Sequence to fold (313 residues):
Amino acid sequence: MRALRHPALQWLLGIALGAVFVYASLDKIEQPREFARIVYHYRLIGPSAALGFVPANTLAVTLPWVEALTGLLLIAGLWRREAALAAALLLVTFLVAVGWALAHGIDVENCGCFSVTGEGRAAGLKLVLQDLGLLALALVLVLVPPRAREVAPAGAPAAA
Amino acid sequence: MSLRVWRVGVIVAAGCVLGFAWNAFGGRGIALSGNAYIKPGEDVVEIDAPEAKKRLDHGALFLDARPVAFYAMGHIPGALPLPEDDFDRAFARLEPRLRNTLDIVVYCSGYGCEASHIVARKLREKAIPAAILHEGWPAWTDAGYPTRGGDQP
Fold:
């Protein structure tokens, strides 16, 4: 536990996690239409004529930028714990989406994780494990404050 | 250094603002209030399942844009197959009929399916207007409307 609190380790973890998030956002920012199509495929939130906007499109437009901002903050080490919490919440969202698709037998050929065109990776068990790994990384940053600073109060909110 | 949860809200909100701004000014924006498959400036009529049912009862011609295998598994009664992946051949066969029909509705597999939009676009290029059934086949079956199996319309 002591090692986890080492500032250098936290710095490294932040950069690693941040890099993954920034990298994951680029293709989606570049091609929102393709990403929207992938969001449809999950059938978790689809197009809706009833609302004044389409949830899937809105998510496709905003989510990549939340990812990018989260990643940049993690890399810069600004608001690191909060950015890590945002990353954890995003990862939980992804896990719910993939779990939903798997549970409903929806064949998501391209998970829309990193690449939104071409082959991409399928949303499967392997993806769940990778997301869980990243989630563990994020939770270390959320729950273990770096040494040499005042310790966070107990009862820090557990991320999801 | 305590965890300030409000900062998470700021991150999410700022990300959303950036996203909307990029969508508005980045040059690659998509419509927030429509189907992402509709190209900017495209004049598309999308109808929902009850409206489609009404049109079917009034004699509208339905076109199934899905691959023919799906058509055979089940389709809207009276619908003709005009699969997007075999458009030219199917269109050549159907053209006389389509030219004589005023009310045409195209549908495909719903969520994440672009085929109906592609078919409607191709028809429009040939000066044949066609409406699109929003959410396609699943919207139709979810509403409990009749379907028909087999190769015949």
Summary: The CA atoms of residues 31 and 112 of chain B lie 15 Å apart. Helices of chain B lie at 5-25, 49-57, 68-73, 87-99, 115-125, 136-142. DSSP finds six helices and five strands in chain B.
